[in-house]
Amino acid sequence: MRSLEQWFAEYGESHRNRTNKLIHFLCVPAITFCTIGLLWAIPMPAALASLPWLNAGTALIVISLLFYFSLSVPLALGMAVTSALMVWLIIAIDNSRLSLWMLCSAIFAIAWVLQFVGHAVEGKKPSFLKDVQFLLIGPLWVTSFVFDKLGISYQTSDTQIQ
Q1: Residue 1: inside a domain
Q2: Residue 11: which of 147, 130, 151, 153 has the closest Cα?
Q3: Which residues contact 2 (CB under 8 A, 6 or more apart)?
Q4: What pTM did the predictor assign?
Q5: Which of 87, 79, 97, 99 is nearest to 28 (CA)?
Q6: How many domains does the chain have?
């Protein structure tokens, strides 16, 4: 299993250009939010209707957090807070007159187009084309920059990253 440092080093190879980084800082959270929102909007069987928190969106969050905790407890906790805020917003949208799946679909499409524009500027292919797990690393990579700006350390078992 790769360490956090290895994941970030490999992911960072195709995210060095300032414009591409800026696009990713905006679009990765948007794509993460929309992915959870689109999965949240999938109707659940009637037998599970009494458990509104049990859906494909929360399943993705749990799976992601388990992976993140294996890499860095502080970053995983940051992602847990971020996920909770995203779920709060998803619930607010879902309870409004807006269509959750339509809104998330539109933002998702725009954000992905921008991501590919960023990679065109960078001159490198997106990391997930090499390994789909990089789709989980992107949000953690963005969170690491927030931690850096806030001066919050996120240790791994084999190295200190700051």
Answers
A1: no
A2: 130
A3: 10
A4: 0.90
A5: 79
A6: 1
* 104 assigned to some structural domain: yes
Alpha carbon 61 to its chain centroid, in Å, reads: 9
d(CA 39, CA 55): 7
The whole-angstrom separation of Cα 116 and Cα 160 is: 32
Residue found by looking up tokens 């996920």 in the block: 83
CA 162 to CA 72: how far, in whole Å? Answer: 12
Query: Which amino acid, one-letter code, is at 54?
Result: L
Task: Please give the residue range of the domain that contains residue 87.
Answer: 17-43+52-161
For tokens 């500027």, the residue is: 121
Residue-wise pLDDT for 107-158, tens only, equals 999 999 999 999 999 999 888 888 889 999 999 999 999 999 999 999 765 5
Environment class of 138 (CB within 10 Å of its CB; exposed 0-12, middle 13-18, buried 19+): buried
- Token reading at 36: 């959870």
